[in-house]
Design a protein that fits this description.
The protein is mainly α and 262 residues long. The chain contains 11 helices and 3 strands. The chain has one domain: Glutaredoxin. Strands 2-1-3 form a 3-stranded mixed beta sheet, covered by helices on one side. Belongs to the GST superfamily.
Length: 262
């Protein structure tokens, strides 16, 4: 009997998308699958968001109507998984060390809190032209009378996402509010840092990294790259430094910062 091969999954990402990096680092730290049938072979597909590839008709109508990365696609999936947290939880169902049962409730809650922050607001304060540039790119396509009705609907939906998350995230007071929330959130991690060298080196003293480790490390790296290192408690920063010195981080970042131009 010929063994069937696991279907290939494609991770659509960008090297400077914070949520893409979170998923790529989660993949790097995922550990062993719960069994052979749970293996998720992943190939990467870079999306050039700076040349607006995510606004193409194909991407908006077939990959992600929000026009964002990361997205996980596969013939094995009923539909693309177009959210970094959904991708992370999909992987955790197959790679149990990502969300170990003993800490599952707290990991889910902390991941939700981390992703409730507006990363655009934190990354681009005072740079309204960036959000307006995205809006202009969508409007340019909407102004084309030859586009299909399906594409027009997709662009209008994308515009609503931009207005809510990008333009709304840079309104007066929003970056400051997000910065305060992020600082308070990061202080809460001091209680779950590894306590002694006798335990594991990861959050909760685990010997294997969880998805929370992956997302936290990327978030702190981004805050440093955008000049917000002051919101990171020193002990949390030390933990992140140790993680960033490990081969998994080095391999996915290849010397890059999390922000383009840094």
């Amino acid at each position: 009997m010929v063994a069937t091969r696991s279907p290939i999954y494609t991770l659509h990402h960008n090297h400077f998308s914070i949520c893409s990096i979170m998923v790529r680092y989660t993949v790097a730290l995922r550990g062993a699958p719960q069994d052979a049938a749970s293996e998720v072979p992943i190939q990467e597909q870079s999306v050039d968001i700076f040349h607006e590839e995510q606004l193409s008709e194909h991407f908006l109508t077939n990959i992600n109507p929000k026009g964002q990365v990361p997205v996980l696609t596969s013939p094995a999936l009923p539909a693309p998984i177009a959210d970094s947290m959904d991708i992370t939880r999909f992987l955790a169902q197959r790679y149990p060390t990502l969300i170990p049962a003993a800490h599952a409730e707290e990991i889910h809650a902390r991941l939700d809190a981390l992703h409730a922050l507006n990363y655009f607001s934190l990354s681009f304060p005072g740079r309204d032209h960036v959000a307006q540039g995205f809006k202009a790119a969508v409007q340019k396509r909407l102004d084309d009378p030859t586009i299909s009705p399906t594409y027009r609907d997709a662009l209008n939906y994308k515009m609503s996402i931009l207005e809510r998350d990008k333009i709304g995230g840079l309104k007066p007071g929003q970056p400051e509010l997000m910065s305060e929330r992020a600082h308070n959130l990061l202080r809460e991690y001091e209680d779950i840092l590894p306590k002694t060298e006798a335990g594991g080196p990861w959050l909760f003293g685990l010997t294997q990294p969880s998805a929370l480790d992956a997302h936290l490390v990327v978030f702190v790296a981004r805050m440093r790259d955008v000049g917000r290192a002051a919101i990171v408690p020193p002990v949390v920063g030390d933990f992140v430094d140790r993680a960033m010195a490990r081969p998994e981080w080095v391999a996915i970042m290849e010397g890059r910062k999390t922000m383009v131009g840094n």
